[in-house]
C-alpha cells in the first residue's frame, strides 16, 4: 500500500504562479498517482515557474536541470570524483531526487543526448527504478519522487524530437501564453508597473507573437514582458526598455529589428 504525506499549505515564499486552467490539479494528481509529467509549450510561457510553484506547494525538494547537447546520463546519475585524495561517488541531481523523494525537472529534455532517455525509461513505468551501473545499486523511487520534463514543440528540429516510445511514458499537458487579462496581471504583479501600463505591453506582445514563424523564430515571452515592465518601472525610457527586452533578444536581423521598433513606436511613440 502506497503512502504519500498530506500536502502542506502553500509556503508564502513559493514562487508566484497564476493558474489559467486545471494545470495545478493535474500536477497534484500526477504526483499523488506517481505518474511522470511532460510539459509542452513555447519559451518563456511559465513552465519552469509552474514546476517551482508546485514543488513548493507539495513541499518537495526540486532539482532542475537545463538540458543541452553535452548533457550525459552520468551528469544526471552521478560519477566518481577525486576528493581529498580519495575517489568518491557523487550523486547527480536525478539520483539525489530519487534518494530524497524530490522532484527532478529536466527542462528542454530533447536537447540532451540519447543516453539520457535510456536512463529515464525505467523511472517512467511501473518499475520506478534507477539503475546505477557504476555503483551496482538499483534504486527504487519512493512514492514522493516525481519526474517532470519539458520541451518546446515549435522550436525543435526533426532530429531532436521525443520518440513516441518516450512520449507515451508521460502524462502530458500543453502550455501557452496566458490570456491577455491574466498576463497583464502577472506582469503588473512581478514588475510593480501599474496595470494600465502593462496592458499596452501585453497588447503589443500579442501583435508581435503573430510574427512567429515568419520573421521571428520565437514570440515575445511573458518573461521578457516582465523584464521590460521592470525596467520601465525603474525609470528607463519606454523605447529604450522595449528595444533591450522585446527586440534585441528576439532577433539579430537588422531589418526585422527595424520592423519591431516600428510596431513599438506605433504603440508608445
From TrEMBL:
Q: Which residues form the ATPase dynein-related AAA domain?
A: 36-170
Record's keyword terms, sorted: ATP-binding, Nucleotide-binding
Where does the CbbQ/NirQ/NorQ C-terminal domain start and stop, copy by copy? 183-266
Highest taxon above the source species: Bacteria
- SUPFAM superfamilies for this protein: P-loop containing nucleoside triphosphate hydrolases
* InterPro entries in the cross-refs: ATPase_dyneun-rel_AAA, CbbQ/NirQ/NorQ/GpvN, CbbQ_C, P-loop_NTPase
Q: Which family does it belong to?
A: Belongs to the CbbQ/NirQ/NorQ/GpvN family.
Protein name, UniProt field? CbbQ/NirQ/NorQ/GpvN family protein
